[in-house]
Design goal:
The protein is an alpha+beta fold and 479 residues long.
Length: 479
């Protein structure tokens, strides 16, 4: 009754008598009342009796004054006003709770994490984030929820109920702008237009840098409440959205939409250059860099640029990771097992990847991808100067030197410069006298493979194809 504790029975009995003196005591709960008429009302809390019904909806109550308060839900009567903002409420208790939005008072706190709340009920709901309790379950599918509101919203998935409609002219006008594309409100700084004033207020944060919503776990700040809600799932691991086909769970609804395309095969985003289709916009954006050669991500250590962020992360391992894996044949060291395995195939000549069209085998899967372009005719790399297209990135790099005149490879003996490394190799034979290519008929040796091909015509009698056009005169000059 008052919270006093004692091990002495006689003292406790005397103390109770001082509390209940001149009062009527409930036989079941021990609660004391000033007059006899209050006892029957209290007894109903024990018996569960509810003798007072609502004349409108039939809901029953244990006390008559509860019916009176309940009737305000039907009449809309709100006799209690907030002295600061004038907002009206049906109950005095609601005014008391509402006042805390003005004073900032939060008298109720979580015993686990210390988070404070303005209303005691919010503490009860919050505690479920710690206990994992989900006392509300769907009668249709059995899915459980921590809050009554969540199950109410969830049930609309099954019933198809859409209870919210626009009841006043202002809301209707704003909603209609989603159909008419009328956007009468604009940002004073950049001129961007919006249909709703609230959207302008949120947009302004992109200019001011204001981020009023912060994560209580890591302190990261956000400009919008929705962003913080999504972020919190990285801490809680919550994945409330699931695929209806395979059951895979996701933290965001948009991820479910993208994932569903793995089942439907839908690819709504296509490349404007080559027409290749993708399931999401991000993949299409990354793919475009194949054509534009844009590399927005660079290594902070060596400055090497990449088209994708995850490629930078992988590359960084070449700087930070110790090269603990070494080749048993040549001793070359690697930081990653994948690279060491691929390298070993150079020695073993293993080629586990083959082309499904012609059967040609390769040591690396990436080489199969590049090779397939010989069958499909796909040439995703184009020259920005002349527009010529190429199947491989290396080819366009070499081709660009025809425009720039760059000759990065030089002979160590005479200093002559070349556009390609293999030209240096061939040129070096003029200094060394090496002739690695021999005629199978007469045994004569040559420095280049194409010279052997020309020489073979002296044995076969084959006549070379005579060129036409601008190469015709040059051909006869050589002849």
């Amino acid at each position: 009754m008052c919270g006093m504790a004692s091990t002495n029975y006689s003292k406790t009995k005397q103390h109770l008598q001082t509390l209940t003196k001149g009062k009527v005591v409930c036989k079941m709960g021990g609660k004391a009342f000033a007059n006899n008429c209050d006892v029957p009302s209290d007894m109903r809390t024990h018996t569960g009796e509810k003798p007072f019904p609502c004349e409108v909806c039939g809901k029953v109550f244990a006390h008559k004054y509860h019916v009176k308060k309940h009737m305000r839900t039907h009449t809309g009567d709100k006799p209690f006003l907030c002295k600061m903002c004038g907002k009206a409420f049906a109950r005095q208790h609601n005014v008391t709770v509402h006042m805390r939005t003005h004073t900032g008072e939060k008298p109720f706190s979580c015993k686990v994490c210390g988070k404070a709340f303005a209303c005691k009920n919010n503490v009860t709901v919050h505690m479920r984030t710690h206990t994992g309790e989900k006392p509300f379950s769907c009668e249709v599918c059995g899915k459980a929820f921590a809050h009554q509101n969540y199950i109410t919203r969830h049930m609309r998935i099954h019933t198809g109920d859409k209870p919210f409609s626009y009841t006043n002219q202002t809301c209707t006008t704003v909603h209609m702008q989603t159909h008419t594309e009328d956007k009468p409100l604009s940002c004073k700084l950049c001129g961007k237009v919006f249909a709703c004033l609230n959207n302008v207020a949120v947009h302004m944060r992109t200019h001011t840098g204001e981020k009023p919503f912060s994560c209580e776990v890591c302190g990261k700040a956000f400009a919008h409440q929705n962003y913080m809600t999504r972020h919190m799932r990285t801490h809680t691991g919550e994945k409330p959205f699931s695929c209806e086909v395979c059951g895979k769970a996701f933290a965001q609804q948009c991820n479910v939409t993208v994932h569903m395309r793995t089942h439907t095969g839908e690819k709504p985003f296509s490349c404007k250059v080559c027409g290749k289709a993708f399931a999401n916009q991000t993949c299409a954006t990354v793919h475009m860099r194949v054509h534009t050669r844009e590399k927005p991500f660079s290594c902070e250590v060596c400055g090497k640029a990449f088209a994708r962020k995850n490629h930078v992360r992988k590359h960084m391992q070449t700087h930070t990771e110790e090269k603990r894996l070494s080749c048993e044949v040549c001793g070359k060291a690697f930081a990653r097992q994948k690279h060491a395995t691929e390298h070993m195939r150079r020695h073993t000549e293993e080629k586990p990847f083959s082309c499904k069209v012609c059967g040609k085998a390769f040591a690396c899967q990436n080489n199969v991808t590049v090779h397939m372009r010989t069958h499909t005719g796909d040439k995703p790399f184009s020259c920005k100067v002349c527009g010529k297209a190429f199947a491989h990135k290396n080819y366009i790099t070499r081709h660009m030197r025809t425009h720039t005149g760059e000759k990065p490879f030089t002979c160590e003996v005479c200093g002559k410069a070349f556009e390609q490394q293999n030209n240096v190799t061939v040129h070096m034979r003029t200094h060394t006298g090496e002739k690695p290519f021999t005629c199978e008929v007469c045994g004569k040796s040559f420095a280049q493979q194409n010279t052997v091909t020309v020489h073979m015509r002296t044995h076969t009698g084959e006549k070379p194809r005579v060129p036409t056009g601008k190469n015709f005169n040059a051909y006869w000059e050589r002849s």
